[in-house]
Amino acid sequence: MANEDFSVRLKKGLNIRNMKPIELAEKLGINRGIISQYLSGRYKPNHHRFYDIAKALNVSEAWLLGFDVPIDDDDSDEVDKLYNNNRKILTKDDKTIIKSIITNRLNERNESNEHES
Questions:
Q1: Does 81 fall in a domain?
Q2: 53-81: average pLDDT
Q3: For position 112, what pLDDT does the model report?
Q4: CA-closest candidate to residue 8, choices 52, 41, 45
Q5: CB 56 within 8 A of CB 27
Q6: Which residues form the domain of 98?
Q7: In the chain, pLDDT over 90 holds for what percent of residues?
Q8: What pLDDT does residue 39 have?
Q9: Mean pLDDT of the chain
Q10: Spatial separation of the C-alpha atoms in residues 51 and 49, rounded to whole Å
Q11: DSSP assignment of 2-62, as one string?
Q12: How many CB atoms are closer than 10 A to CB 24?
């Protein structure tokens, strides 16, 4: 179960990475007002933007979602365990985000492999 919400983790991620909200907005190519709305908790990003934020901050998606995992954990066994231990309490939106993150990552990996061939 998530311990902190997205806005809290976004603030922590920016602080840990020593990045200002305007810098994140520029990295993502979006208006800084959108980042302000995420930070205030007024809005949450869609799953594509969520993935981009995690990537820009160099943090794990599970950590950014508020789960009690290391900030840059990419151990697949831990991901499996985390999902399986929490799948009954995940909302439909949580599952949609998780599915999108995995799909996007696999697509990026496939594109990267095609460029190397």
A1: yes
A2: 80
A3: 72
A4: 41
A5: yes
A6: 6-116
A7: 43
A8: 96
A9: 85
A10: 5
A11: -SS-HHHHHHHHHHHTT--HHHHHHHHTS-HHHHHHHHHTS----HHHHHHHHHHHT--HH
A12: 23
Would you say residue 31 lies in a domain? yes
Give the number of domains in the chain.
1
Token reading at 99: 């599915």
pLDDT of residue 113: 67
Give every CB contact of residue 52 below 8 A, 6+ residues apart in sequence: 28
Q: Taking the model in full, what pTM does it have?
A: 0.62
CATH number, domain of 63, equals 1.10.260.40
pLDDT value at 1 more than 90: no
For the beta carbon of residue 50, count every other beta carbon within 10 angstroms.
21
Within a domain: residue 1?
no
48 has pLDDT over 80 = yes
Report the distance separating Cα 80 and Cα 49, nearest Å.
23
Q: Which of 57, 81, 53, 55 is nearest to 67 (CA)?
A: 81
Cα distance from N-terminal residue to C-terminal residue, the chain: 41
